[in-house]
Amino acid sequence: MDKVCLFVICMYCSIHHLSAQQEEQQTQPVQQSLVTQDDILGNMNVDYAKIKLPPLSVLYENARSTPSLQILEKEKLLQKKLLSKEKRNWLGFIQAGGSASYGIADNVASNTDVNTPLIYRYVGTEQTSWNVGGGISIPFEKLFDLRGGIKRQRIQVDIAELRKQEAYETLKRSSIN
To answer: What's an example of a GO molecular-function annotation for this chain (predicted)?
Structure first.
């Protein structure tokens, strides 16, 4: 029995030792020689006169897809949506409402005086009523500022467009230099 246990322990240790050596081999870094930019340029015979650059129109179109110009485009769209909201602002002056009811109304009355005994009178009637209404409220401050608000929002749309054009021109100038 002792020999079997000793054999199993030896096998376990040798297998563990083999796997540890395999892991060491995997983790050892491979040394590579350092390659500098001068080595690359020295080995390459580059004829700079034959290099063809893309046309400026391609560079300009690539500049249009930059995130900064896309942000400005989204800002312009937001300002246009706010302008359309400002144009519909007059709808806030109109209000409408309605109600309907159905039920039984009860009236109980009592009469008495010196010559007559106490008389109770009960009247119950079924009633139906309905009401439809509408209204127009005119806040004069908002009414007189409708056109001004629309003009201000149009100016905001123009400013957003000009910011986008300015950023595009800046990118064009930086791509040329």
So the answer is: efflux transmembrane transporter activity
Q: How far apart are CA 177 and CA 161, in angstroms?
A: 25
Positions of the chain with pLDDT lower than 50, given as ranges: 17-24
pLDDT score for 158: 92
pLDDT number for residue 157: 92
Please report, as a single letter, which amino acid is at residue 163: R
Q: What is the pLDDT of residue 159?
A: 92
Q: How many structural domains comprise the chain?
A: 1
Structure tokens at 93: 């002056």
Contact of 123 with 106, CB cutoff 8 Å? yes
Cα gap 120→106, rounded to integer Å? 13
Give the span between the Cα atoms of 46 and 170, in whole angstroms. 32
Residue 122 included in any domain: no
37 close to 152: Cβ distance less than 8 angstroms: no
Please give the biggest Cα pair distance in the chain.
Answer: 135
- The answer to whether position 40 is within a domain reads no
Q: Provide the residue range defining the domain that includes 154.
A: 67-90+134-176
Query: What are the residues whose beta carbons fall under 8 Å from the beta carbon of 172, sequence distance 6 or more?
Result: 59, 60, 63
